[in-house]
Structure formats: C-alpha cells, structure tokens
Amino acid sequence: MRGRKRHIMADTAGRPLVLRSHSAGIQNRDGAVTTLKVSRKRFPFIEKVFAVSGYAGERVAKTTCITPEIIRKPKGQIGFAVQPRRWVVERTFAWLNRNCRLAKNFERTVASAEAFLSVASVMLLVRRLGCSA
C-alpha cells in the first residue's frame, strides 16, 4: 500500500517530542504502540497522553505505564467543533505540513520520511526561537 501515516507526540504548546512514520497499511493502534514505546525511553516522566479515538484499545493502554485519555466527540454534536487537547496535535501537523517536502508523501522509505519529519520539526522550532528573541 502506498502512502504514510504519521504519529506525533507533542507537548501542550504543540512542540513535537516524538515523530514516527510508517506504512499506511498499519493500523493507528499499532502505530501508537511504537510511538508510546519510543516516548517512554526519551521521556520517562510522561504519565498521561491525550489521544483521538483511533488510539482507543486495550493494546495501546497496556503498552507502557503512560495512561492514554481518549478525546471523544460529545454526544449529539452536529458538524465541526474544536475538541479539547486534540487541536494541539492537529495544529502541529498543520505547522509541519507547511514544509513542501511533507505536503505529499514523496519519500520511498520510512527512514527518509521520519528524517524529513525531524528536519521540518527543527525548522519549526528554530523559527519559533527566532521570533521570540
């Protein structure tokens, strides 16, 4: 299957902490497992993450000691509404996708896709530092 899925873990300000990419043929729950495992090694102090319903499931919940809180759409909601905490990651994806290389899936390998995610993240953080100086 062509294409990539991206999983990111961001802090509350939207700064990327963990960036993962994999084949589009892999379920979100399976991608979440690897993302949580990587995040545990780099950030052992994280205890809770906010996630969308695609990450709901026992396998994700039992991967690490990180507790996933699933952000669900309120009952009776019609149309679009901003969900609490979900917008942080969506905004980060939007910032990263402003990089032309990430606008489409040009990369042939997962390694190069993750490398360009990291490069785009660094560019994003450097821009933020330049604006605050």
Automatic annotation (TrEMBL):
Residues 2-120 form the Transposase IS4-like domain. InterPro entries: Transposase_11. This is Transposase.
